[in-house]
Design a protein that fits this description.
CATH superfamily: Beta-grasp domain
Helix content: 25-40%
Strand content: 15-25%
Number of domains: 1
Number of helices: 3
Strand order of the largest sheet: 2-1-5-3-4
CATH class: Alpha Beta
CATH topology: Ubiquitin-like (UB roll)
Radius of gyration: 12 Å
Length: 86
């Protein structure tokens, strides 16, 4: 059973070719958003290339968070590019 649901939005979703994935909390080096981003960089094709050229915002349980926010089993983490308007 997966501990964390990760959802990708906008052009990040298009780049990765997937809308979501599941990650076991035990697979992370640290149980925070930094550990999750590191894990995705190492394991998800295209993620590192995307994050090197684009900023990525992180929301945990529908709340925008800082990069070192703790995450727990059952959390939903959303990753998306900054929103612009005009």
């Amino acid at each position: 059973m997966a501990d964390i649901s990760v959802i990708f939005f906008a052009n990040l979703r298009e780049t990765l070719g997937k809308a979501e994935c599941s990650v076991e909390l035990s697979e992370l080096n640290t149980q925070d958003t930094v550990g999750l981003i590191s894990y995705l960089t190492e394991t998800l094709a295209g993620f590192q290339d995307y994050t090197e050229s684009q900023a990525v915002l992180v929301a945990v349980n529908q709340t925008l968070v800082n990069s070192n926010t703790p995450i727990a089993s059952g959390d939903e983490v959303a990753l998306f590019p900054p929103v612009t308007g005009g």
